[in-house]
Amino acid sequence: MYLDMTYVYFVLPALLLAMWAQFRVTATFNRYNKVTTSRGLTGREAARKILDANGLQHVKIEHIGGSLTDHYDPKTNVIRLSDSVYDSNSVGAVGVAAHEAGHAVQHSEGYVPIKVRNSIVPAANIGSYLAFPLALLGIIMANDLFINAGIILFSAVVLFQLVTLPVEFNASKRAVAVLGTDGMLSRQEVHGVRKVLSAAAMTYVAAAATAIMNLVRLLVLANRNRD
């Protein structure tokens, strides 16, 4: 019963926030995906313009299946744009593509938060799989070594989510700035991009909140076991 209640108290509210954030970003994107850009600019074209303006002609843009599966892969220097973004000339598509181009620019400039995030990835990946099993095994066996190992590993997950916030916020800020100042979009269209990217940012806030609450739950369970 105690395990269930800690989940309800700490994790469930964060998961509800995450569900709301995902609904909001989907609804906002769908709204602005129906608004075409006045110049007919597509997501692929917008990303290409931003990359070329920053001397990143070597960064490729590829098409990937799905919806909102867009991402920048720093290992291969490739931006992958989804079905709903690649050839779409909607305000929503251009905003998403510009955001991913912002990540490529961050990487080329050596933006510190993205370098920190990349360095944490291995530990965060291990922590996401092993932290709770180790900690719960430690609680069952009354083994502080396992408990502490689980807490340390999951702390890496929390740190990754926290560092992700400035990375994502900065990429969106870059996208909005360049789309407005370079005249690719009108002022009203830039406002739509800002709406889309602000909604997307909430998903990262929710992910960070969920990770923090899971860590708090883990600490509470560990302290309860030690008492």
Please outline the helices and strands.
Elements: H1 2-32, H2 43-53, E1 60-63, E2 71-73, E3 78-81, H3 91-109, H4 112-141, H5 144-181, H6 187-226
Parallel strand pairs: 1-3
Antiparallel strand pairs: 2-3
Helix pairs in contact: 1-6, 2-3, 3-5, 3-6, 4-5, 5-6
Fold and architecture overview:
By secondary structure, the chain is mainly alpha-helical. It has one domain. It is built from 6 helices and 3 strands, in the order ααβββαααα. The longest helix has 40 residues. The protein is elongated and about 65 Å long. It starts with a helix and ends with a helix.
Mean pLDDT across every amino acid position: 93
Radius of gyration: 20 Å
Q: Which band does the percent of strand residues land in?
A: under 5%
Q: Strand order, main sheet: write it out.
A: 1-3-2
Major sheet details: 3 strands, mixed
Instruction: Count the DSSP helices.
Output: 6
Number of domains: 1
Instruction: Give the strand tally.
Output: 3
Q: Rough shape?
A: elongated
Distance between the termini: 17 Å
Q: What's the helix-strand series?
A: HHEEEHHHH
- The SS-based structural class is mainly alpha
Instruction: Show unreliable segments.
Output: none
Helix content range: over 70%
Essential attributes:
mainly alpha; 227 residues; elongated; 5% strand; 6 helices; 3 strands; three-stranded mixed beta sheet
Provide a short characterization of the protein structure.
The protein has 227 residues and is mainly α.
